[in-house]
Here is the input.
Amino acid sequence: MQTATSSLSPKIPPRIARLEELAYNFWWSWHREARDLFKMLDYPLWRSTGHNPVKMLLEVPPERLGELVADPLFLRQYDAVLMALDADLTNGHLWFPKQYPDLTARPVAYFSAEFGLHQSLPLYSGGLGVLAGDHCKEASDLGLPFVAVGFLYEMGYFRQRITPDGWQEAIYPRFKPEEVAIREALCDDGECLFVPVEVGDRTVHLQVWHVQVGRTRLYLMDADNDLNAPWDRELTARLYGGDQEMRIQQEIVLGIGGVRVLRALGIDPHVFHLNEGHSAFLVLERARELVEAGLSFDEARQAVQATTVFTTHTPVPAGHDVFPFHLVEKYFHTYWPRLGLSREQFLELGSHTGNRQGFNMTVLALRMCGQCNGVSKLHGEVSRQMWQSVWPDRPVEQVPITHITNGIHVPAWIGEAINKIYRRYLGPDWVERHDDPALWERILDVPDEELWAAHLHLKRKLMSLIRERARQRRIEGLMNPEQVLCAGTFLDPDALIIGFARRFATYKRASLIFHDLERLKRLLHDRYRPVQFIFAGKAHPADEGGKRLLQQIYNIAKDPAVGGRIAFIEDYDLQVARYLVQGVDVWLNTPRRPYEASGTSGQKAAANGIPSLSVLDGWWAEGYNGANGWAIDPGQRYDDPAAQDAADAEALYHLLENEVVPLFYKRDADDVPRGWVRVMKEAIRTVVPVFCTRRMVKEYAERFYIPAARRAAEIESLGLRITAGATHV
Ligand SMILES: *Cc1c(COP(=O)(O)O)cnc(C)c1O
Here is the structure.
C-alpha cells in the first residue's frame, strides 16, 4: 500500500525534510523531545494550532524554516528526535518481538467506533475512544503487530458551547483533512483506495485513510465522497448522531466494511479484537468468507471463535445496541443465506432468553468470540450476571466472561515536571519498566518538596490554560463577563482544587456534591481552608437529562454566592483532560455503583501524583488500598437510588470535612503538606505499575492474542483456514 504525499514537501528544506514524517506520526505526542522540537519550531503557532504539527507546517512562514536550518540547537534536537523515532520504529529490541519472535508476521486487528489519539483528531466521545487510542500507542511501544480500524468522522464528536443561561449547544465544525495528521491510502496504481460494501440494497463506497501512531496503523473509513448518494455520505459524518437505522448502517460499515478494507489492503490478521459491540458484525463477515470458501457455518463459527476477542465496556443497558428485528431483516435478508442460515437461526445469534425484543450486538459478540472480558474485576462479575441468560445452563460463575482491567498509556498522560522526577529517581529508562511494581518503590526516595514543587508547577499551568481559554472565548464574543467568572479565571492556585471531568451521563452523578448546598458552601467559603471545584464534560446532544444536569451545575457556578470557587471548563477534550489530570489536587468520582465499568481518568490523575476521592466502583474498587486516596463508602448498599445518593453524599462531605481538607492544609514550616505528599506518593507507587496500558496490553497479548494466534496456526496446519485469504485490490 502507498500513502499520498502532501503539498508540504516542497516547502520544507531538505535538511529538515523529515519534519513532515514526524508531524504525520502521532508518536511525537508522547515523546517529550519531539514535542519540544515543534515548540522550538514556532511556539506561538504551537499554541494557536492547539498543538497540531501538521497545521503548523502548513502555516509556518518559509523564512522561519530557513532560519531553523541555520540553527545548530534546533538541528541537534531534530537529529536526536529522528534517531529516537527510527529506533522505536525498528523492531528487535521491543518486548513482543523479543518474547514471541514467531508471531510477528501477522497483526492483531482492533476494531473500534472511536479513537482518542489527540485533540487535533476528534474521533472520540469519551473513555472508550481514549482507551482505544492508548491501546494503539502501547501496542506500538511494545512492538505488538497491530492494526486498528475505525471511522473518519469529518464532523467528529461535537464541540461544546454553553449559553449564558447554562444550556449546552452542540457545534459541528467540519475538520479539514489537510490540516490533520491523516492521509489517503492509495492502491498500487497510485489512486485513492475505495472499498465497496453493501448496506441493505445499496452499495456504499468507503474511502480509506490512514493514521500513523508510532508503529501502529489506524485505518479510517469515510463515506463522504462523490461515489455515494447524499444520504450515504452522512453515514460517517458524526459520532453517535442519527437514529437506530443510521446506527445499524454505521455498524455494518464498521464491522463488514472494516473486514473488506483489511482484505483490500492485503492485511491478513490472525486475531481480531472487538472494542465494544459496535463492530460485532465483523464476526458475520468473517464467517461468511469461510462459508463461501466451503466450510459449514459451525466450522466457520469455531474458526471465528478461536481467533476473536471481545471486550464489553458498560453495565448500563442503554450502552448495548439492540436493533429491532425488522431492521435486521431489512439489512440482512440477503446475507443470512450466504452464511447457510435460516432467518430464525440468524436472529438467534443476537437474542437470548433474557430479552427477545431485538437483535443484541453484545449477545452476537459473546456468542461468536472465544475470549470475552469486562474492564475491571467488578465489571467482570457484573457482566457475568448480566449475560448469564446467554448461557442459561451454566451457573453464573461459569459464564465465560473474564476481566482485564483498563489502564492508561502513562507517557501520554503525565506532565513534564512529573516525568522529570521519574527520569531522575527511577532512571532514564523508566518507561520501559513501568509495569514493574518494584521500580515504583523508589518514588519514596523523592524529596517531598520536590514532588510538591512539580505538582504546584502543573497546577499553575492548569490555571494559565483556564485563563487563556476564557480570554479567547471572551474575545470571540462567546462569553459574557458573568461566564468569565465561572470559567475558573478567579480560582486561587494556593487553595485546594478538586477536579471532576467526564461525560455527563446520569449514572456518573456529577451533581452529588450539590446534594446539600449549604454544607457545600461552608466548605467553599471557609476562611482559612477554602475548597474549590473544577467541572468539565459534555452531555450527549440527545440526552436532555444530562444537559439539564449540566445546566444546574453551571448555574450554581455562575451564582455570585459561590464566589467563583466553582468553575466549569467548556468543551472538555483530550487537551483539557490532560491539563486537569495533571493540575488539580484531588480527582473526584461519584458514579452510582456498579455502573462505572472501569473509568480511567482517575488513573491518569494518579500517574501525576493526584489522589482519587471516589466511590468504590470500577478500577478504584481494586485500586484503593486505604492510603493512596479516599473511598466514598457509606458502608451500606441501598436499593432505593435516592437513599443511596443521600448516603454517598453524606460520606463524601464527611471525608472532605474531616480528612481531605485538613490534610491538604496541614503544612510544615516550609509550607509543604507532608501528610498529603505521602498520599500522592502512595497513589503513584500503587497505581502506575498496575493501571497502565503496558500491563493491560501485555495481559491482552498473553491471555488472549497469543493463544488465539497459536490456535489460528493449529487450525491452518490442519489444512483448514481462519481467513478466506486476502485479496489485493
Ligand atoms: C480519560 C478520558 C475520559 C474517560 O474518563 P472516565 O474516568 O472514564 O470518565 C473521557 N474523556 C476524556 C477526554 C478523557 O481523556
About this structure: The first strand starts at residue 2 and ends at 3. The two ends are 10 Å apart (CA to CA).
